[in-house]
Amino acid sequence: MTSAQNNDTKVDDLETMETETANSADAESEEVVADLTDLDDDDLTSEDSLTYSNGVIEKIVAMATREVPHVLGMKGNLMHFVQEQFGGESLTKGVSVEVTDDNRVVVNISVIIEYGSYAPDIFEDVKKVVTDRLAAMTGLEVAGINLRIDDVVTRDEYAESQKRVLDSLKDNEG
Fold first, then answer.
1. By residue range, what is the domain housing residue 74?
2. Does residue 49 fall inside a structural domain?
3. Which of 56, 104, 133, 151 could form a disulfide with 64 if both were Cys (CB 3.0 to 4.6 A apart)?
4. What residues form DSSP beta bridges with 111?
5. 147-165 pLDDT, tens per residue?
């Protein structure tokens, strides 16, 4: 083989290698493009969303319930009361929410009402205020409200019981 032929072969080999490399790169590019074209439009674009934690819904419900006349307080355990007294306000005590499959909310509320008040009226007022506040603030629809009357006391008795708990907590600190 002459050196001219040898050079021609090397040139041919080099051209073949360049072509193969280019074809390989094109094939990889085509695979990526093919992979992208296989994706659904939903995979390429994201949907916006707005979600609420249960705690936010519970807080709205609790605050709305406290607006109702003759609701003295929410029923919760002693720990909730202690948190309230020391600034770690637990506004959600006495409230739980469940989200249904169709994204509606079932609300469970436990309250202490004032002695002498008419419980069915309080129930209707709570339903109206809670439903209105949730719709206005979140757009969520209420599937149901379960109101549990946990205690009936006079305003004075309620204030006195809170004072006693607070005093006992202060005594335990010192």
1. 54-173
2. no
3. 133
4. 74, 149
5. 999 999 999 999 898 888 7
